[in-house]
Every structure is written in structure tokens, then in C-alpha cells.
Amino acid sequence: MSASREKRTRQDKPSQGPSEKQLRQRSEEKKDRSWGILYTVVGIAVAVVIVALLIYNSNFFQNRATAVSINGQSYNSADVQYYYSGARQYQTYYAMMGMSAYNYSASDKEQMYSETSNQTWYDYFLEQAVQSLTQDVALAAEAEKAGFTLSEDGQADIDSTLASLENNWISSGYGSRDAYLRANYCSSMTYDKFVSILTRSALASEYATAQVNSYTYSQSDLDSYYTEHEDELDSFVLTQFVFQASVPTQTDADGNTVEMTDEEKAAALEEAKKDAQAKAEELQAKLEAGEDAEALKEEYSDDLFSSYISETRSGSSVNSEYADWAYDPARKSGDVTAVEYQGGSDTTYNYCVVRFEDRYQDNDPTANVRHILVSAGSDPTEEEYAEAKAKAEELLEQWKANGATEDAFAQLATENSADTASAANGGLISNVSKSSTYVDTFKDWCLDSSRRAGDTGIVQNTGSSVKGYHLMYFSSWGDPQWMLNVENTLRSQDYSTWLEGILAGYTAENGSGLKYVG
Fold first, then answer.
1. pLDDT above 70 covers what percent of the chain?
2. Which of helix, strand or coil describes residue 74?
3. Which of 16, 22, 475, 498 has its CA 20 to 30 A from that of 378?
4. Residue closest to 74 by CA, chosen among 129, 22, 137
5. What gap in Å lies between CA 226 and CA 361, rounded to an integer?
6. What is the mean pLDDT of residues 19-47?
7. Residue 368, SS3 per DSSP
8. How large a percentage of the chain has pLDDT more than 90?
9. Would you give the DSSP letter of residue 321?
10. What are phi and psi of 370, to 5 degrees?
């Protein structure tokens, strides 16, 4: 075969395809391209997730989501949380005092506020928060329309709160003010937002107070109201003894509490009621026979749940179980009655014996005083009492050396009084009357008819949780308690009507941002 033919023959042969090595190489290249595409897709997805988390953690959505819209103006979760936290704190305090069923250690969303309305505590707090926010927004807007501005004292209070905040976030170990606020309120709370809320709330409060104080009433107005409500406004002097039947706690041989069935509790209560009722009837008979109330209190001291002798109280605070009996115009001194009623729980039952002593319109003036409580402790020794008295005497001399004015006393009270509630207001206690619940030594000094403005004194306190001595300053005499009660009631009614008219022009609509509250 010629060379040219051989060449043509090779060229005309069909291709034998890529070699095995080439196939492996192409496969690897394809695989590399596939993994590259996958890594790119995954990388993009991860980047999207990271960005989303960064945005979420920066509170982008929380800050911008409308929690409540009031007349078209948006407010976020921080605005609502401020009032939610306030409502929760209020109930927590009362729960700690045994005056609320709220369990502050449990989730708000998992405990019922009202079975009737199927409302949880979370629902209740949220409702209160939205109402409070709406009210403050409305009042602040009305204040601005009226040209009403925050007072110097109001601004000073805000500055004081912010100064405390500054100390707290540092001492608590937080990295910033915002971090501290987020931990105590919600993730959308910032320092600027907090200042804005404080300022709005302070303005609303001052404007409301100014409105209330603007109401004036004539003596005729007060007398007319008294005539219609004398049962609630008169002073009543009563003696009361209460025997309480209760289910006793059962324990086993090791001292462990044994849980009783409902039937066992009911049976135990019925047995306890027989004993309590018998003692109440026995004491009632002795009281009706003219035996001394103080002696009876001592005789039955081990059995009594509570008692008081010849205590003065306003008609509105008379025990509702026998109020109608006490209000009866035919009631006379020495009359005795007995009532029975459910106690504070379904495992207690009360038997109450009461004697009517007197009823009158109290026209004695109330007293306005300032005081400095020097604490000797909750259960002080004679030595600790002596130290507290010496401190009170030292403060009195300090006051005299500092001008002996009421302002000087107020400043001293702010700096030294163990009664922190009144210390914030310069130790001021207003409208002390016979029906006030202060310890007798304090009340007797205040209501001494010889008192004149500027009088000072030192009285011992052995009857409250914090014992010691009160350094006293008499400020002024005020109106009788019944008159103050009428004025306060009329002001409250007029303010409520005024506020209702304002709020009628404000509508609140819940938004998606509410889910960030609580």
C-alpha cells in the first residue's frame, strides 16, 4: 500500500473517543464546578441568615414595628413596655403585701387574671399599658395646645431619675445605658426613647394635676354633698372582735404537711366554725351585759383573730358586713350585734361581734406636719432606742443652727429620714386626723389642740415595723377630714368627666409590634 493511501485510511477511520485519563480529568473538573456552585449558593444563604440575625439583634424590626397607633401616630413596643412594666410592678408590690393574687414568679401569659373574661395577667397588663399610653399621649398633646410646659421641679425629677439610671447601669455591670434599659424593659428600649417617654409622662401628669387643682367649691357645694352622703362621711367610733375559724394544717409523724381532700377540708372547717361561733356568742353576751371591752380583749386574746377598742373610722371604711346596721339612724351608743361571713379564703370563716360607740360629723381640723424618722430597728433594745433619741436630738440642734425654718427642716428630712416615702417630699405628712392609722404617739402629738406652726418635738415610735423616734415639725392646721373627702370626691368626679371628654377624641389601634411587649 502506498504511503498516501495509508494516510487516507487513517484519516477515514472513525474516532476512538477520549482516553480513560481524559474522562477522569473531565469528571473531576465537572465535580469541582458543581461543588463551586453549591458552595456559592450555601455561602449566599448563610450570608442572608447572618444579615437577618444582625438586623433582628439590632432591633430593626422591633424599633420599626407599630405596637399601637394613636390617632394615626405610631408607637413601638418600648412605648408600651414602659407602661406594661409599671402595671406589673404595681401588682407585684401588692402581691408581696398579700393583697393581690398575681404570681410575679410565674409567666404572665400562663396565669389567669379573670376566668370570667378569659383574660390572662399578660392580657390585663397589656390592656392597662395601652390605656395609660393613650392617656399620656392625649394629656401631653392637650398641654402643648394650651401652652403648658414642664415645671422646673418636674424637670429636676427627670434629671434625678436619669442620674440614678447612670449609677445603676454602671454599678450593675452593664456595658451601656441602652443595654441596661433593654434588660429592664425590652429590646427596643433606648436611652433616647426612655427620656422621651419620661418627659411625656411628666408633662401629662403635671397638666392633669394642674387641672384637678383648678377646681374650686363653695361651702354650699360641700354641705350639699355631705347631706347626700353623710353615712360615708361621718366618723364612727366602734369596738370590734373577730373570731376566725380555719382549717388546721395536718402533719404526719415526721412533721411533713399532709394534703387534705376537699371533703376533709370542708369537714374540718365546719368543726372549727362551731368552736369560733361558741366563743363569739360567749363574748357577745358578756359585752351586752356591760363587761369592760379591754378586759374582754385580754381574756380572749389567745382566740381572737383581730380586735380594736373604740376606734374612729370614716363611714366609708366601716366593715361592709355590718355597715347598714351602723348607719341606721336609730343606732345608739352601747348597741351590740354579731355578723358572720366568709374569710379571705374558702378555708376560713369569720364571726364578728361589734359594739356601736358613737357617730358624729368630725369638724376638728386636720394637721399637716413634717417629720424625720430616726430608726432604732425592727426590734430594738433600750440602748438602741437611746441611740435613736440622741440622734433625733442632734438633728434638732442641727436644724436650729441652720436657720430653724420649715425649708431647713424639709431638707434635713430628705437627707436623714428613715421614712423614705415622706422623705422624698421633705418629710411632709398631710391631713392627719383621728381616723388616721399612724401610731398613737405620732397622731396624739399632731392633733394636740395647742399646736402652732413651727412647733417641734420628739416622740417615740414603738408600734410600727420600723421603730425609733420621730423628730416633729408642725406646719399648719387644715380643713376637717369630711370636708377634704368631699373636695377630693368632687375633684375626682369633675376630672374624670373632663378626661373622658379629651379621650373621646383619641383612638388606639393595636399593631403587630405588640408581640414584642411583655
1. 88
2. strand
3. 475
4. 137
5. 10
6. 48
7. strand
8. 78
9. T
10. -120, 150
